[in-house]
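Working notes for the structural subgroup meeting. M.R. asked for a predicted model of this chain before we commit to crystallization trials. I am recording the input and output together here so anyone reviewing the notebook later can reproduce the run.

Input as submitted:
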Amino acid sequence: MTIVVLGSDKRLYIYTKVTSLTNNEDQQRPPTFENSKTFQLPCLARRVWYLQKHRAWLVSFTDNTVKQVDIDAKGEARMAEKLSNKKAPPFVGVVQTLSHHSDEITDCVEVLIPLCIATCSKDKTIVLFDLQNRVKLRTISDQHETWIFRLRY
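Returned structure, recorded in token form:
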């Protein structure tokens, strides 16, 4: 089990469940998690989603993009680490960047037929995107007078 936390320090923290020696101990106590990885983010992140069918993590950022990130990656070497004596966490591995909104992205859902994602934004649009083939399928606009807050599928 994994918990992903977005910090206000432009970092992404990965917590993994600590397994005990016996199943009886697991059933009697609440689970324990430990910080297993920390990544530097390119800018401040707003939201994070896990897409079960895609087996992918998506993070929305203040630059109005959504990035598919690889939390298993070791990350790139950070330039600041080379320039100073301070040990900085590596940048998160970015698989792809979706930059089809002009304002804050407020939600993301996984659509099963066809297998794609839908994102919504304060720009009053919904964008359908095929993550596997890296193609924007459609933008739904001119349907809403105010920004779109949530999607459910």
